[in-house]
Hints:
There is one protein chain. This protein has one domain. Helices cover 11% and strands 27% of the residues. The protein has 1 helix and 8 strands; from the N terminus they run E-E-E-E-E-E-H-E-E. It has one helix at 58-67; strands at 2-4, 9-11, 17-20, 33-34, 40-42, 49-52, 72-74, 83-84.
Amino acid sequence: MKFNPISKNLYTDEGAFIKRLHCPYGIGWNQLSTSENGNGRACSLCKKSVEDTSYMTDNMALTCGKDFPDTCFRVNIESDNVTVVTFDD
């Protein structure tokens, strides 16, 4: 996956747009409740699930973003599956 920290946009390695990341509450990962699937968390403020992209392939993230548009993503820029980019988008 490619993540642009300036625009907060997440893309597949091939450049397909997955989602713009934005948390109006500024909640940190450790402040979220653990979820049943073990890889995600739940926000008690907005009631949305937050999935950790560290365990996702590009296709999994793209599908999740399309099928569940209200789902939020956590992107750890130190994960092996994430590349930080700063191109204009």
